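Data availability (excerpt). The following record was deposited with the supplementary files.
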Amino acid sequence: MNTTFAENDLSSSIVEFNHALSKVSVSINIVLNLPLNCYVTWLILTETRGTLTSDIFSLNLAMSEIFFSLASVWYFIYMQSKLFFCFQAVMFSLGLLFTARPLFQCCICVECYVGVVHPVFFLSYKPLRYRVACCCVAWLIALVSCIYSIFTYSKIVYLYGFFIQNVLFFSVILFCCLSVLWALKRPGPGEQERKKNNTMKRRAFKIMSLIMISMAINFFLYVAAIPLQCCLPFEEFNQAITICTSLALATGFIQPLLYLQKNGKLNYSRKL
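Predicted structure:
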């Protein structure tokens, strides 16, 4: 009997911890991530001066973060009302977190990779319409992921679907990063041209490295926790997934800070 009470107390403690952690991460997402991404969106739309083509993926990434931050309000509504519709809205929004964010980060890295390793091909597809087409496909994939979240959240295929997806995205980003690093080691056609090319390559490598670190912080723990399902009790496994999801939720400010640093909008970055 005492053992049963102890188990019930432990389960209730874990549930309370999960709810508290989720509330904190959602609050950080709304208070910190939302204004930062709104500022980045405003900068891209007002100060690009003809460079919208190069920032189109960053713009779509910021917009997806804004949509997700606004949709996070449904979590608080669900906690008060316990309506199933609100819960579905929360699961729908998680598709933006687990798919739209890494997908647009992946697009930024692929763009840098193509620009450095395949410059002729990059110039051939430089017009804005090609990037807009890629963004439309990315939004379509994100929408499918949102719908997928609604219908599979209670099934094991939900976790393993996002597990495979994030491993794929991380592999693409890692390949792009290593390819640019290899390109840095290759000699250029001339000394002056080589210095110019190396500067561009280093900038691309720096961007991709920071994105890869950001994605590792956001999703690596989540990906690493999923295989533990077979050896952890349900309550502990659910707690591990909640911690990883909350971490991904609260760290949406990394990408906008990266963009602001790249464009010299942070005071400390002006000397970099």
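Summary of structural features: Residues 93 and 261 are 28 Å apart (CA to CA).
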